[in-house]
Amino acid sequence: AARASPLARGRLGLLTVLAQVGAAQGLWRAGRAQGLRALWKGNLTACLRLGPYSALQLAAYRRFVVLFTDDLGHISQWHAIMAGSLAGMVATIATYPTDVIKTRLIVQNRLEPSYKGILHAFYTIYHQEGFLALYRGVSSTVLGTIPFSAGSLFVYINLDKIWREPSSHFTPLQNFINGCLAAGVAQTLSFPFETVKRKMQAQSPYLPNYGGVDVHFTGMIDCFRQTVKHRGVLGLWSGLTASLLKVVPYFSIMFSTFEFCKRVCLYRNGYIESPLSYKLTPGVDQSLQPQELQELKLLRRGNLEPRKLQAKETHS
């Protein structure tokens, strides 16, 4: 989160008052006007949000996986992606106020701050604008999960065609590239909702220049309308470059790490011959659960030991 903060700062600059300049120019202006530390505004909030967000997402994902798993213990690719999307939605809604606070801390002028810190921002927003202000833009976030999931699914179901080989043969490098493709497509499709969300989070009548947003609106639909009216359709994708520079490496590393860890688990439980490939272990029933497989190994080992003793007695 700490390394990505300048990119988030540049992206938010594009989504708000600096929508007419590029990501690099937005970073340069912010750093020059407010100092280098301005590029890390809101980073502490992002770091504090990461822990509970990840914990909630993982717990919810497990619940949804159990819900979508059939009687044979299998889950389809579509259901797996849906489980991930719903889990992300649950975690986002639960931790959304911290995301609003992060945005407010980023868009404010560090030299003349409206908020002194995280707690002061939470207290001020709650007392000035009400509790619902802490969830401003959440509807756009929820709707954005639809194109994000669709983009991810589109990439995953076509990976075999892209590489012209089954997914079981993918190398770690291929998995990294797969993560890049999935994140790039999904983020591009869902980015208009991200744009609207950030504008809704930043806009406030209690902040200078209404939070620095480049258009004024009354709700999510009006925000879409006003953005297209003043910035054109492509205005909904302002800041996409900075966002991709942050999101694509993150999801690529996460995806490739997940795939490698999955192979390690399969290898340690005896399903595959090596953690570097998905080559199945000969003679192993792949339908068995890990506990059942371990019990079978112990049973075979127990039957084998008396035979060894008998063989030794015969030779002696």
Overview of this protein structure:
The chain has 316 residues and is mainly α. The chain has 2 domains: 5-284, Mitochondrial carrier fold, CATH 1.50.40; 290-316. It is 68% helix and 0% strand. The chain is built from 11 helices and no strands. It has helices spanning 5-15, 23-34, 43-68, 77-107, 118-129, 138-157, 159-163, 172-202, 220-231, 240-268, 290-315. The mean pLDDT is 80. One of its GO terms (cellular component) is mitochondrial inner membrane. Residues 1-26 form the signal peptide. Solcar repeats lie at residues 1-67, 75-162, 170-264.
What key phrases describe this protein's structure?
316 residues; mainly alpha; Mitochondrial carrier fold; 2 domains; 11 helices; elongated
Give a short overview.
By secondary structure, the chain is mainly alpha-helical. Helices cover 68% and strands 0% of the residues.
Contiguous runs where pLDDT drops below 50 for at least 5 residues:
none
First-last Cα distance: 68 Å
At CATH level 3, the topology of the largest domain is Mitochondrial carrier fold
In CATH terms, the superfamily of the largest domain is Mitochondrial carrier domain
Structural class call reads mainly alpha
CATH architecture of the largest domain: Alpha/alpha barrel
Shape: elongated
Query: What does the main sheet amount to?
Result: none
Helix content: 55-70%
Task: Give Rg in angstroms.
Answer: 25 Å
Order of helices and strands: HHHHHHHHHHH
Give the CATH level 1 class of the largest domain.
Answer: Mainly Alpha
How many beta strands in the DSSP annotation? 0
The portion of residues forming beta strands comes to: under 5%
- How many structural domains can be distinguished in the coordinates? 2
Average pLDDT figure = 80
